Structure formats: structure tokens, C-alpha cells
């Protein structure tokens, strides 16, 4: 089946690519394995120079690659440019810090284990396959590639099939930056071709960012092969608002947290859980601000929300909403898909959600927000944690005791208090429960695809 660029703002097929053949895939894996034998011996300084060169290229080409991102998956041009800038920052972060993150860790008292010295050493695993999604087509890959390459690993990229030009750009970017041939290669392949790559003995590990089914499939195969995986999967992040919060600011951030990237983010706030003493005012502010967003051409400067990336994605949103309304939910704004070309869905707020509705438990991947009214903090925590996901979370309160409880009791990989959940190169990123396992970013992220080797010297 052909791999295509389809503009979600128009539905038009712009470019078509043929998937790699089995022989072409084998040649790329062979090249990666061969490159690893020498690349792993390069110094941190050499790798850092290459990564900084990639960052420089990305900065210079920011506008052009932003246009490609917007064309392929529909995010606004402004957010696409911001994503490219964030990627350049991430590359430079690991260029600067990787050597310290992976420095030998000496045992304070080697004599306790009968050694003259003893330490842990981090060493690369080898060829790592990255299976990546379309919603942040550069950042998701960069946050894998930067630490992996700095650790001495080499990468193979299986990107989402609706962003092939972004995928090809990334492979080309690292090549033009001076990385050796085979250090980072794009595989234009279908989902059904992934298993053969994972089972290839030359491939040591895999990283997945994407849907729960994608993570389950890769983890199952790698479990059978006894290969390391890191999974960052879906999320249904809570956004809890307590009476002491600055409601105006909370509502403003809530709109961004729900609609950034056209609402298509695993760490987007999706469930807005509001104390009854703040509910009426927050609901009014939030609904007004959501309704005021401009939906339209993602290339236009005044657009706040572009199209859903795929036609099926919009259908999924429409079905979740229809199920909720049929079971008694109230639509406060939005709710009706835009007619005409493209896969547009308006910012929508739904109240009176119950656990009988699919929308209560399933992830809504688009600008569709659910509102809950709760009597106290305990009830807020109960609803917030009543999900199979555990990626990010938000809590809005100026009460120190409440802040401490949210930090301790929200079951998630991240808790952001009085701010919007996002990812930073400086902080570890990942989830619990069905949102996955393992971490990206920070010091722990670069160590995920390393062998932490104990060295004992008598």
C-alpha cells in the first residue's frame, strides 16, 4: 500500500511514496549495524559537534520544514515553527549534557566489595528502531534521536505513514550534519513490515510513541525477542481546578492545554475537573474562550485551530460526542463539524459527563473537552485517577497542602501545578498504567538505551 502525503485542510493527495522492499530494508539494517561498530567508539565531543550541526541546519530551515509539517498533518504554521525551534534546543541540550549524564559512576567504598575500584559504566545497546507518531512529527523523533545518538546508538525511524516528507527530512538532516552513513536512517515502511525489523537480530531495542495498540504490538514482539522497549502511549490528562486558583489564568491556560496542536496531543488536558465553588465561573470563562478560537486554514496567521490530521480521526471525535449526547451530556460550545473540504472539528466543551459515556474513559484526540463538577479534593482525585491512562496531569490551586496532595496522589508520569503539562529536555517524560513505561528526556532518558555495566577491578 502506498505511503501518502494528504493535506488534512483539503483532503487532497499531494505526494505518494512506495514502501521499501524487504531487500531495501535489509540493506538499511545492515548499514546501521555496520555503522554502529565504529560510531560507538566516537567521542562525546565528536557526537556533540554533529548534533550541534544538525541543530544549526534545523534553525536555518525552520520555516521550510514548518510548512511541510503543516501540509502533512495540519498543525498551525506558528506551532510548527515553534516545534522546529524546540527540536533545535533539544539537540543542543544533549550535545551539552550527554557526557555528564553518562559519566562513570564510581562506588564510594570499592573495598566493601573487595575491589581497588568499582564503577558503573553506560554503554550503547546498538541499533534502535523508533516507531513514531504524526502529531509532533519532528519533536517526537528528536527527543529519541538526540539522546540515542549522543549515547553512541544508531537509529532507524519508522514514522507515521501520513508524514513521509517529515520522515525523509529527518534522515536527511542528520546525514547533512555529518553523521556517518547508517547512523540515522528513515524506513518508509508500512505497519505490517515493522515486525520483521523488530525480530531482526541486528536490531537491539525499540522506542514507541503512539497509540496503545501500537505499543502493545511492539512490546509483545520485543518481549518475545527479549529486547528493550520504551513506550509513550495515550493519555487522558486531568486538569483539576480548586477554589483558590486564579480562575482567569486557569481558563486561559486550559484552552491552550486542550487545543494546542489542534487538540491532538497525548499530554493535552482532556478532562476538566472543577470544584463546585469554582465551577460556574470557570465553566463560563473556559467555554467563552474555547468558542472564541478561530478554526481554519493552518497556514493563515490568524488561525488558532487547524484540521484534524486524518478523516478517521474526525469520525472518532464525532462518534464519541454523539454517544455522550445520546446519554445525557450537554454541549456548551462547538459540537458540529465544519462542512466543506478538510477534516475540521470545532473546539467543543461538554458538561454533565457520566461514567456511562465512552467519552468518560476513552481518549478524545482533538479539541473536545469534558467538564466535571466535584464537591471536594477527594472527589477530584477519584475522577482524575479513574482512567486506564497515567501520562500527564494538571492541578490548579494556591493552597500548599492541596498542592502537596496533588503532587503525591495524582497517578501520572508528570504533575504540573498552576501550569500546563509539557515536555522539557531537562525533565524525564513518560507515563504509568496504560500510558506506557520507561522515560524519555532528562538524564534518565539517555540511559534507557544503554547497558549499565558494572566494572570491578581487583
What this model shows, in words?
- By secondary structure, the protein is of the alpha/beta class.
- It has 2 domains: 258 residues, Aldehyde Dehydrogenase, Chain A, domain 1 (3-Layer(aba) Sandwich), CATH 3.40.605.10; 176 residues, Aldehyde Dehydrogenase, Chain A, domain 2 (3-Layer(aba) Sandwich).
- The protein is 42% helix and 19% strand.
- The strands form 4 sheets. It has a 7-stranded mixed sheet with strand order 12-13-14-11-10-15-16, sandwiched between helices. A 6-stranded mixed sheet has the order 7-6-5-8-9-17, sandwiched between helices. A 3-stranded antiparallel sheet has the order 3-4-18, with no helix packed on it.
- Helix 2 runs antiparallel to helix 4 and helix 9 crosses helix 10.
- The longest helix has 25 residues.
- It is globular, with a radius of gyration of 23 Å.
- It starts with a strand and ends with a strand.
- The mean pLDDT is 97.
Provide a compact summary of the structure.
The chain is of the alpha/beta class and 458 residues long. The protein is built from 15 helices and 18 strands.
Record the SSE blueprint.
Elements: E1 3-6, E2 13-17, H1 22-39, H2 44-60, H3 62-73, H4 77-101, E3 105-106, E4 117-124, E5 127-131, H5 139-150, E6 154-158, H6 164-176, E7 184-186, H7 194-199, E8 203-209, H8 212-225, E9 228-232, E10 237-241, H9 247-259, E11 269-275, H10 276-291, H11 311-326, E12 330-333, E13 348-351, H12 358-361, E14 368-374, H13 377-385, E15 394-396, H14 400-409, E16 416-417, E17 436-437, H15 442-447, E18 450-457
Parallel strand pairs: 5-6, 5-8, 6-7, 8-9, 10-11, 10-15, 11-14, 13-14, 15-16
Antiparallel strand pairs: 1-2, 3-4, 4-18, 9-17, 12-13
Helix pairs in contact: 2-4, 3-4, 3-6, 4-5, 9-10
Amino acid at each position: 500500500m502506498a505511503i501518502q502525503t494528504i493535506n488534512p485542510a483539503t483532503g487532497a493527495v499531494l505526494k505518494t511514496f512506495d514502501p521499501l522492499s524487504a531487500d531495501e530494508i535489509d540493506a538499511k539494517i545492515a548499514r546501521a549495524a555496520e555503522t554502529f561498530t565504529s560510531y560507538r567508539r566516537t567521542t562525546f565531543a565528536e557526537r556533540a559537534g554533529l548534533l550541534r550541526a544538525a541543530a544549526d541546519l534545523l534553525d536555518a530551515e525552520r520555516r521550510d520544514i514548518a510548512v511541510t509539517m503543516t501540509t502533512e498533518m495540519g498543525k498551525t504554521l506558528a506551532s510548527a515553527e515553534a516545534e522546529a525551534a524546540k527540536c533545535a534546543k533539544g539537540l543542543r541540550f544533549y550535545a551539552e549534557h550527554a557526557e555528564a549524564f553518562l559519566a562513570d559512576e564510581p562506588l564510594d567504598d570499592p573495598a566493601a566489595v573487595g575491589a581497588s575500584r568499582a564503577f558503573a559504566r553506560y554503554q550503547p545497546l546498538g541499533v534502535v528502531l523508533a516507531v513514531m507518531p504524526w502529531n509532533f512529527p519532528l519533536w517526537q523523533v528528536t527527543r529519541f534521536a538526540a539522546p540515542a545518538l549522543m549515547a553512541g546508538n544508531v537509529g532507524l525511524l519508522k514514522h507515521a505513514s501520513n508524514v513521509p516528507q517529515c520522515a525523509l527530512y529527518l534522515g536527511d538532516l542528520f546525514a547533512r550534519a555529518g553523521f556517518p552513513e547508517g547512523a540515522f536512517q528513515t524506513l518508509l515502511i508500512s505497519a505490517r513490515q515493522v515486525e520483521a525489523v523488530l525480530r531482526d537480530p541486528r536490531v537491539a531495542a525499540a522506542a514507541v510513541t503512539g497509540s496503545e495498540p501500537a505499543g502493545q504490538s511492539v512490546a509483545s514482539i520485543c518481549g518475545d525477542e527479549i529486547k528493550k522497549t520504551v513506550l509513550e502511549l495515550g493519555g487522558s490528562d486531568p486538569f483539576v481546578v480548586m477554589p483558590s486558583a486564579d480562575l482567569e489564568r486557569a481558563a486561559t491556560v486550559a484552552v491552550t492545554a486542550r487545543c494546542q496542536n489542534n487538540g491532538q496531543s497525548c499530554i493535552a488536558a482532556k478532562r476538566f475537573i472543577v470544584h463546585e465553588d469554582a465551577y460556574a465561573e470557570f465553566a463560563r470563562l473556559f467555554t467563552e474562550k474555547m468558542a472564541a478560537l478561530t478554526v481554519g486554514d493552518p497556514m493563515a496567521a490568524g488561525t488558532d485551530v487547524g484540521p484534524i490530521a486524518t478523516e478517521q480521526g474526525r469520525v472518532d471525535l464525532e462518534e464519541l460526542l454523539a454517544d455522550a449526547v445520546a446519554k445525557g451530556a450537554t454541549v456548551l460550545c462547538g459540537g458540529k463539524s465544519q462542512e466543506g473540504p478538510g477534516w475540521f472539528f470545532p473546539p467543543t466543551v461538554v458538561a454533565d459527563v457520566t461514567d456511562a459515556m465512552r467519552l468518560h474513559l476513552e481518549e478524545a484526540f482533538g479539541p473536545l473537552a469534558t467538564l466535571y463538577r466535584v464537591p471536594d479534593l477527594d472527589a477530584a482525585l477519584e475522577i482524575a485517577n479513574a482512567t486506564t491512562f497515567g501520562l500527564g496531569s494538571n492541578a490548579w490551586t494556591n493552597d500548599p497542602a492541596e498542592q502537596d496532595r496533588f503532587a503525591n496522589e495524582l497517578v501520572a508520569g508528570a504533575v504540573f501545578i498552576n501550569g500546563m503539562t509539557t515536555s522539557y529536555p531537562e525533565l524525564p517524560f513518560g507515563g504509568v498504567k496504560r500510558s506506557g513505561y520507561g522515560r524519555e528526556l532528562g538524564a534518565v532518558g539517555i540511559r534507557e538505551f544503554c547497558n549499565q555495566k558494572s566494572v570491578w577491578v581487583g
